[in-house]
Amino acid sequence: MNVISDSATMLRRNLRHTMRNSLALFNGVVMPVFLMFLMGSASSASSC
Predict the structure, then answer these.
(1) Residue 48 · residue 38 · CB < 8 Å
(2) pLDDT value at position 42?
C-alpha cells in the first residue's frame, strides 16, 4: 500500500512540474507527433 501512495505522490509532483514548464510539455507531446508526420511524409515521398 505504501508503494501505491508513494507512486501517486511522485506522479502528482511530476505533473505539477510539467505543467509549470511548458517547454517540457511541448517536447513530450507535440514534438513526437510532429516527427512522426515528418518521417511518414519523407518515407512516402521517397517510395514514389
Answers:
(1) no
(2) 74
| Cell numbers given for 12 | 502528482
Neighbouring residues of 19: CB distance < 8 A, sequence distance ≥ 6: 25
pLDDT of 44 above 80? no
The full set of domain ranges for the chain reads 2-46
Report pLDDT digits (tens) over 15-39: 888 888 888 888 888 888 999 998 8
d(CA 1, CA 4): 5
Task: For the chain, give the secondary structure using H, E and C.
Answer: CHHHHHHHHHHHHHHHHHHHCHHHHHHHHHHHHHHHHHHHHHHHHHCC
